[in-house]
């Protein structure tokens, strides 16, 4: 039997490639590992890393169908990023014009967290480590 070793990456399809590319690189600070335009599919594929580790594939496709994305919708609930200082992370997002929910405390771990959305309203979370 095989053993899982890690989560390799999360794939995200965006509606406006330039806006989402700026959000994930400039606002969240992920670094670009590679970027390809696939002319036959009219699609960009952007490989993004966090601390040198490949974590997100950002895709653009012409006219992708909408998907329910609120945290309580069926399916993938949200993508969470660990942060060392939640107050500083929230302040940075707010300075960039990103609205964050009020900070909450995880009743089981005592850790603080908050939710916000990417440019396509996909739910994201900062979880203080």
TrEMBL record:
The keyword ATP-binding does not apply. Keywords: Metal-binding. Pfam families: Glyoxalase. Residues 6-129 form the VOC domain. Gene3D superfamilies: 2,3-Dihydroxybiphenyl 1,2-Dioxygenase, domain 1. The keyword Metal-binding applies. SUPFAM superfamilies: Glyoxalase/Bleomycin resistance protein/Dihydroxybiphenyl dioxygenase. This is Glyoxylase I family protein. The lineage of its organism: Bacteria, Pseudomonadati, Bacteroidota, Cytophagia, Cytophagales.
């Amino acid at each position: 039997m095989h053993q899982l070793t890690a989560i390799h990456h999360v794939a995200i399809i965006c509606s406006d490639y330039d806006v989402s590319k700026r959000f994930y690189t400039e606002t969240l600070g992920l670094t670009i590992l590679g970027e390809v335009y696939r002319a036959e599919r009219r699609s960009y594929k952007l490989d993004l890393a966090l601390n040198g580790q490949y974590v997100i594939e950002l895709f653009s496709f012409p006219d992708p169908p909408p998907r329910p994305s609120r945290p309580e919708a069926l399916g993938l609930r949200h993508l969470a990023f660990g942060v060392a200082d939640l107050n500083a992370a929230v302040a940075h997002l707010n300075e960039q014009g990103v609205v964050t929910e009020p900070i909450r405390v995880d009743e089981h771990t005592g850790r603080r967290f908050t939710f916000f959305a990417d440019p396509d309203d996909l739910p994201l979370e900062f979880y203080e480590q």
